[in-house]
Amino acid sequence: MARRIFRSPLTVLGLFIVLGILIAALFAPVIATHSPTEVDLVSKLEAPSVEHFFGTDEVGRDIFSRIVYGTRISLRIGLLVVLIAFPVGTILGAIAGYMGGRIDQVIMRITDIFLSFPGIILAMSIAAALGPSIENVMLALAATWWPWYTRIVRSSVLSIKHAEFIEASRALGANPFRILFKEVIPNSIAPATIQASLDLGFVILAAAGLSFIGLGAQPPSPEWGAMLSNSREILREAWWAATFPGIAILLTVLGFNLLGDGLNDLLDPKQR
Amino acid sequence: MLLEVKHMSLSLKRAGKYSKILDDISFYIEQGETLGIVGESGCGKSMTALSLMQLLPEKARLEGDVVLQQKNISKVSKRKLEKIRGNQMSMIFQDPLTSLNPLQTVGVQVEESLILHTKKNKKERRERVLQLLNAVGLPRAEELIDEYPHQLSGGMRQRIMIAIAMACEPQLLICDEPTTALDVTVQAQILELMNEIKRETEMGIVMITHDMGVVAEVCDRVIVMYAGKIVEEAPVIELFGNPKHPYTQGLLASIPKLGRRKEKLGSIPGTVPTPGSMPTGCRFADRCPHVMEICRSVTPEMIQIQKSHQTACWLYDEKEGNENATTRSHELEAALHN
């Protein structure tokens, strides 16, 4: 398994980016050179230098340190949203696929309603209704993300529902609940897991987008989307204020995507 | 009597219409007896097995009674069925490669029915699992417990399936083509194991197969099925020595025999009619070499040929059990001329 990861250079790249982000988040206080929120008007709008690697913003905060601390916020959003949406979507999808009939109809029509809105618009309206904060952004994103897992899990449940080992389990006298959690879900969860690893990146991107339009993290917080939003007005004088948070978002999404794709190839028996 | 099946019929819904898959099946099994159910693909053998277990697909309608140890299990609740399945009656499936959960270790899967049906604690369960693995002839049980199905060969997996089915010492074991997916040499080992289990326990076995060799090896009594109906029933020696129904005769003629190369192997022309397009009268009529007028219009009833030998064919007469084809067809011809 490990050897196969290293056969694909893109997966390795993804792995390194994700590892880098994890290290940045875990050791933020060690890596950051300044406080992420300390205002220092004397050295405002300084270009990148040895003192300030990525320069400073309009109130003199060190952009490098802010980006390093920002990984914590972004990772937390990505992980929590996926950790809420994934089990909810998986269980609903498994129930829909395994039970079939009317239960299936009801669950799938509800997911269809959620999927019929463009995700970001729905998230925007939920976040706007709840009021701007990071917690509400997470709630809003989780509410728009679960239907995808429901769909994926349901379709893979349908494909293994009539497998002989499930029939065999029924023949042993296991009740439907036990079969669902011990046989059906473990055997149909792989595609959704891969989707989840891809989604970590997309959730971070969406959260940055919501913060950019002012619905998420609020100003002093070193959230990448909010940093980008702040830098709009000073774009002509200070290119660095927008560029580095942008690159951070780009790398994060790219890293999770490459890793997710790599996992997909890795876990797909047909591509072995 | 261990199991009695009375007038069991099964209909499945296809394209909005119910079509009969099993038509008025009746049979019984005594304790310690092995009953073979044979027939071609699509004749309803597997559906019979699933019906006995009450493991039916959605949109299936099952009529008639299945009585296991004086208890009519076609009338009990789902909850009670779960208590019976795996405990009083177990099933072994056709393909050991797909009937084990690929994500669970052997030990966990053998343990499953012990968890479901007994109050044994963890240690006792482990002991029982080891004992079962030894009983089905698996070596190094201690290590095997922690291995996954993909690490094992087909024969080993089928032994594990048998161990799972035997875990709660059921009174009735239903085997749905247990050797079909295995190598010939492994088949022989599994059949030997089945015979051993039979000798040691007083279990009744339903052996579903299309392999006459398997029937000869393990069965005491045989039911021949064709297109969802029972066409002949006889003790195994009687059936091989004195097959009555033309379909049984055809089946036996199609077995290859060692050392007889030149002889052309018998085959039965045509295929089993599909449910929904069943012919009236005898369902075998279109493929039968002895077909008569009456076969195409009236369904033959099961008649007693000898003690415990029955068949459903117009060629035979209830009382003497002799062939009466000539007299019957003469009568019919006369009737047609008038």
Short description:
The complex is a heterodimer of chains A (272) and B (338). Chain A is mainly α and 272 residues long. Helices cover 74% and strands 0% of the residues of chain A.
Question: How are strands sequenced across the largest beta sheet of chain B?
Answer: 6-7-8-3-9-10-12-11
Structural class of chain A: mainly alpha
* CATH superfamily heading of the largest domain in chain B: P-loop containing nucleotide triphosphate hydrolases
Instruction: Report mean pLDDT of chain B, rounded to a whole number.
Output: 86
What does this 3D model show about the protein?
The complex is a heterodimer of chains A (272) and B (338). With 272 residues, chain A is mostly helical. Chain A has twelve helices and no strands. In chain A, helix 4 packs antiparallel against helix 5, helix 4 runs parallel beside helix 7 and helix 7 runs antiparallel to helix 10. The model of chain A has no long low-confidence stretch (mean pLDDT 89). In chain B, 40% of the residues are buried. Chain B has two domains: 224 residues, 3-Layer(aba) Sandwich (Rossmann fold); 101 residues, no CATH class. Helices cover 33% and strands 22% of the residues of chain B. The N and C termini of chain B lie far apart (51 Å). Chain B is α/β, with parallel strands linked by helices. The chains are: A mainly alpha (272), B alpha/beta (338).
